[in-house]
């Protein structure tokens, strides 16, 4: 007898099978270790039920990340903003920003369609991270955000390969400027 798969309800109302590996991958992309990501995914897996909203899963994950690795939780929220076009709060609730302006310190970001599409956006985000560093956000948190930005570039389906290469060069130059090692690509950019 086959085990029934639990369905989760996405924000648009559609149903999708709960995918523990997808959850693990998203936490690793935010800077959590594979071990911690598996631990949290196991915790979530024991609590999911048929029809659980993805927002409830996100809340469970963010609460656990905040407890175990706060900079990974911050990177998750940062990734949500730069790639998913939503502002995520501490408790995992979020607001989708479809169009308009978001004021981020002295930086003003025009919000359009979600996702990264060109290197200029990455350059603007790096300036924002410089400003956050100047205002006392920890280097550890900024480093986690930088990794989330890097992953956002690599995963972007809208960004042409040449723009991805420019964006990664910008990120690595920025990392070197702050005394961090540049990221090395494990495979060819697509």
Itemize the secondary structure elements and their pairings:
Layout: E1 7-9, E2 15-17, H1 20-29, H2 34-45, E3 52-53, H3 54-68, H4 70-84, E4 86-88, E5 94-96, E6 100-104, E7 107-111, H5 119-134, H6 139-155, H7 161-177
Parallel strand pairs: 1-3
Antiparallel strand pairs: 1-2, 4-5, 6-7
What does this structure look like?
- The chain has 190 residues and is of the alpha+beta class.
- It has 2 domains: 7-68, no CATH class; 97-177, no CATH class.
- It is built from 7 helices and 7 strands; from the N terminus they run E-E-H-H-E-H-H-E-E-E-E-H-H-H.
- It has a 3-stranded mixed beta sheet. Strands 4-5 form a two-stranded antiparallel sheet. Strands 6-7 form a two-stranded antiparallel ribbon.
- Helix 1 (20-29) packs antiparallel against helix 2 and helix 4 runs parallel beside helix 6.
- The longest helix has 17 residues, at 139-155.
- The chain starts with 6 loop residues before the first strand and ends in a 13-residue tail after the last helix.
What pattern of helices and strands is seen along the backbone?
EEHHEHHEEEEHHH
- Tally of contiguous helical segments: 7
Q: What is the approximate shape?
A: globular
Please give the domain count.
Answer: 2
Helix content: 40-55%
Question: Could you tell me how far the N terminus lies from the C terminus, measured between alpha carbons in angstroms?
Answer: 41 Å
The biggest sheet, with number of strands, parallel, antiparallel or mixed sense and barrel status, is: 3 strands, mixed
- Residue-averaged pLDDT: 83
Strand line-up of the largest beta sheet? 2-1-3
Structural class by helix and strand composition = alpha+beta
How much strand content do the residues show?
A: 5-15%
Output the radius of gyration.
17 Å
Can you tell me the residue ranges where pLDDT is under 50 for at least 5 consecutive residues? 102-109
Number of strands: 7
């Amino acid at each position: 007898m086959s085990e029934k798969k639990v369905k989760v309800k996405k924000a648009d109302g559609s149903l999708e099978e709960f995918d523990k590996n997808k959850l693990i991958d998203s936490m690793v992309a935010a800077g959590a270790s594979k071990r911690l990501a598996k631990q949290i995914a196991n915790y979530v897996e024991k609590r999911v039920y048929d029809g659980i909203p993805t927002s409830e899963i996100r809340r469970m994950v963010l609460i656990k990340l905040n407890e175990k690795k706060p900079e990974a939780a911050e990177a998750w929220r940062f990734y949500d903003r730069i790639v998913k076009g939503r502002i995520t709060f501490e408790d995992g609730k979020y607001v989708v920003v479809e169009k308009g302006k978001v004021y981020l310190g002295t930086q003003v970001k025009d919000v359009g369609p979600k996702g990264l599409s060109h290197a200029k956006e990455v350059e603007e985000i790096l300036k924002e991270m410089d400003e956050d560093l100047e205002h006392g956000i920890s280097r550890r948190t900024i480093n986690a955000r930088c990794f989330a930005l890097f992953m956002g570039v690599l995963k972007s389906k809208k960004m042409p390969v040449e723009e991805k290469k420019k964006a990664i060069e910008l990120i690595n130059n920025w990392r070197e400027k702050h005394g961090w090692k540049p990221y090395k690509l494990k495979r060819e950019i697509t």
